[in-house]
Amino acid sequence: MILEALTPIFAIILLGFLISRTPISSQEVWQGLERLTYYLFFPALLVSRLSQTNFEVNELLEIGYVLGFALFVFTILFIGLRKFIARNQGSLSSVYQGSIRFNTYIGLACVEALYGDNGLTLAALCLVVYIPLVNVLSVISISASGGGNRWVVVTGSVLTNPLVLACLIGMGLSFYNMEVPDLGWEIIEVLSRPALPLGLLAVGAGIHFVAFGDQTWQLVVALFCKLLAFPALVVVATLLFKMAPGLSAVLLLLTCLPAPPSAYILARQLGGNVSLMANIITLQTLFAFFTIPLWVDIGDRFLWLNLIL
Fold first, then answer.
1. The domain containing residue 8 runs over which residues?
2. For residues 79, 216, 70 and 264, what is the CA-based torsion angle, rounded to 10 degrees?
3. What confidence tens digit (pLDDT) does each residue in 173-190 have?
4. CB neighbours of 70 closer than 8 A, spacing ≥ 6?
5. CA dihedral in degrees (61, 165, 132, 65; nearest 10)?
6. Is the pLDDT of residue 47 over 50?
7. What is the C-alpha radius of gyration for the chain, rounded to an integer number of angstroms?
8. CATH number of the domain to which 205 belongs
9. pLDDT digit string, tens, across residues 280-301
10. Range of lowest pLDDT (21-25, 123-127, 148-152)
11. Of 7-21, 26-40, 49-63, 90-104, which range is least confident?
12. How many domains does the chain divide into?
């Protein structure tokens, strides 16, 4: 059942990979499509879902507690074991980024396939908390020995992130019960429809292999941390804080996803290990097809314990 829901998603990713290798494709076209998806179609999808849903501030606090706990424990363990992971800060930061960040395109597509519109709304709430947290931590990891000007990058990346802004706009429309003309809703709805398929095609087109060289150990660590260790910490946190089962399942799904292409861009901007980051993103995307169903099944079996604990 889970595989049946997720197989079309990864089939579209594979299609994007294959199309991007044909003569009719070009890097400029894919870059343009990804920008449109990131700055227009996905924000429209988030505004559409959040603006029509009633939510409580307590849900955001719950997400903050769970993610804060999981990220804190993971970061402490990562710092303690850093000498066994990599010797230079650039490689360390790439492994760390690859362990905590997630691909929004794959995430929202999986959430919609498994949990429907209600799941998309819960996922949008998670984005409001998740994206700023991991952006700040990612820049800190790269800037551990860097200058203060790098904080301009993290501040700008959070305050101008179109997904965060879309979530805030949608929440504002819902919270204040603001009236929007029917034409406005129709335009937003039309713009939201290409978001998921184009996002998945762009993920496939972005898959690139770089020679592994001496990166094998760091790649193994990044795969283990992102696809196994960090989601396990999130499961523990959801049970510890007794998060609602539906919200727990969506948050777990988001945390077990592969790292996004934006992690590569951040590594390039701030001096991380770019080739290692590219390989982490590619390998995690390939292995996620096998690990996402595992975590969804674990969520279905165990997160409902929150109802009785």
1. 2-307
2. 100
3. 887 888 888 898 899 999
4. 230, 233, 234, 236, 237, 255
5. 10
6. yes
7. 19
8. 1.20.1530
9. 988 999 899 899 999 998 888 7
10. 148-152
11. 49-63
12. 1
Q: What is the pTM of this model?
A: 0.84
